[in-house]
Automatic annotation (TrEMBL):
It comes from the Bacteria. The lineage of its organism: Bacteria, Pseudomonadati, Pseudomonadota, Gammaproteobacteria, Pseudomonadales. This is DUF4393 domain-containing protein.
Amino acid sequence: MGTEDKSYGVVTDTIGKVASDVYADVARPAARQIGSALETLFKVSLSPVSMLDWGFEQSKDWLKKKVEERTSKTPQNFLRTPPNNIAIPALTSISMSADAPELRELYAELLLKAMDSRTEPMVHPSYINVIGQLTSQEALVFISFQEIGSTTLFQENNARYSHGNDLTIEIQFINHCLSIGLENTKYMQLWLENLQRLKLIDLREYSEVSYVEPDADTPYPSVNNREDRYLELTIYGREFLKACTPPDAV
């Protein structure tokens, strides 16, 4: 038997004991149909590394409560066992983020959406990897964009005759971080660039030159150089935000 086979056996034996407890009470009359399938899913979902076992022990009651709450609100005909390529990495990541509740919430929401046939298509497998590249602070900032309610997050206008916002995108981003209670301004530029690197947001720049006729205020003709910058959610970022946001927060 190879090393991978041995590891897989440890996963089944070790995590099966822990995971069965999580869903022992989920299989109530309204959810009994999927309870057994979910228990089976959990038995093969996590790494045998002891730290992951510890992390799952810390999270199993919390996750069990979330599953019970969501399934109690989901019509039985829409309940389904989540795909392995979502459930296994999500559950592994939940065990690894017991000390990072902001990230754990995002992983759990992806798992919960994957358990409902109406929302399962929203959960792209790559989203779990994206969360793994976020700090807790970055996750808080990104989820807070839901409250802005627009694809365009911040706008900067630099023009002689513009009445728009002349604060830089970077300053507006910092101000937003401060407004949601984050204080470590030293790393906010890093957060901004990381969200861009992950293709969740995009900084777009536009420039335009126009001739300005003389008027009472400016007796001589002039040239207006307009430079606009927009920080926007990408299509990928917008769908990722929807997938990570609980239904009652939309």
